[in-house]
Amino acid sequence: MPLFSRVLLLCFNSSALFLFALLKSHVTFADNKEQTLIIMGSAIETCTSLTPQFCNIDTPLGNEKGAVYLLTSHVIDDVQSHWPTADKSRLAPTVSSLKRLLTTHPSALSKQELLWAWRDIASEQLSQLSQAEFEYVVDMLEIAKPNGQSRVFNIDIEHSKQAQGWLTDSYKFIAASLKVKSQQPSLLVLTTGARDPYADANYYETVLSQTGVAIEWLPLTPSLVSALQEKQCDQLTTYRAQANVYNRERVYPTRIAQEQAACSQGVAHLTARIKASTGIMLVGTEFDNATEQRLTAALFDSRGNAYPWTDAIADAPVLITSGFSGNLLSGKQEQAGNSVTVKPISSLAALQGQQSVLGHGLGSVPFALLDTYFSEKNRSVGLATSLSASKQTDGLGIDEQTSLVVIKSAQGNVLTVLGERGVVHVKSKAKQQFQFDYWPSGAVIEIKNDAFLLSQRSIDNALPAIKMPPLPMQRFSNILMDAKLRSLTQAMCLSQDKTAVGQQDQFLVTLTASKNTQYHRLNSSSTGCAITQLNVNISTIQ
């Protein structure tokens, strides 16, 4: 049975509609060309007992706690003995505060309870700690809790701060994609980008259990990579400290044992395990320099050469990313031959001259540069700048709570959009000029002769246009802040307007429809209007 037929039978939600469209245009795949990419535009944020920060209630899920912290005289002595920075000026005040807390809070605390109690007695002292010192103290106070291996913690979708519908659609598509590859699929999860990859392993094993497939954590941690490089598996504790992670052998003994075993088994075994998996998920969050450095260092050596396992990850039959890790899938090459990925910067920052490209990418999406957290951070101009800087043509920006699916085949590549919002396609035309397309949830896009085309089936299934008054004749202020550019382009689409002008500081943003511009209302949401070939021009007020 052809691939799309098998996925269609397995995927029973609204995504089956676009799969039916794909089935009409693609019959079969050459086995060595098949790959499915599911690129999530933001991190997975679900309320669980491990992640109270993602819950909209104070004490979620009964009495079950995620991280647990306990003050004892022995632990305070350890904190004093292994201070992580050369500057000891904040050590004595920290120890004094911890001893005071010990007298008032002798029982186990959640992280929230610990920090509240600390702020109550020494708010200024706590705020003076460097980030490294703060993380060190919190790590050292944490105590062991139930083993996360094969342990699914409580999930509370109803009380999650973020909408979960996009994740439900994504999980069903992930499961369907994996099941067409294997009758007993397994998904390897890499928490490489996290400061504490061992804690994140528990969380992602929990939330990804909703896919209904076997989930395994792969301990491809920064410390493992360093130990493998230096052939010093006996120094993993030292490498964890260098990565600013402490006390994990007491808190997560099983995770640490997995990491130690992976080191002892060596590079060939690690690479073979990746190749044998049905799918890989490379976890990411919103961009920051530390996250980017951790991800890059786990995939490429200091000279930019890929590790043996890197190609295995890039070629996984099903490859899933969340947040910034999706940026790394592009890795399109400059004319000089260097791989580039997008450094996420705002549109205003791009116009002010900030660097907008990074080195090192996996190359799984060779036809476009990728960016995430897109419209909400107003990064269209930033992506256009990245294209110009790297002499590329096409870029794709994935909104928050949205997944872009790329199905690659010998016959070509087909894209579709799942979730709450949409995907922006930016096509570079000249300096500070680009073509803007917007593909809302449910859109199917075909790539023909290097052109990204909204499928005819998506157009045929569009909703009727609605009557809206034309936009007022004005300059829309702060157009490059928040999601205002998306809001204005959606308003143009719904009102069928041909032009609009926005302003940000000294910059004018002119949006102009041409004879090739098309508007199609694909769904009834506030971001449901598809836009093709809208021209954007940036100029400076003299």
TrEMBL record:
InterPro entries per record: Class_I_gatase-like
Protein's name in the database: Cyanophycinase
Domain of life: Bacteria
Signal sequence residues: 1-30
Organism: Pseudoalteromonas haloplanktis (Alteromonas haloplanktis)
Gene3D superfamilies recorded: 3.40.50.880
Keyword terms, alphabetized: Signal
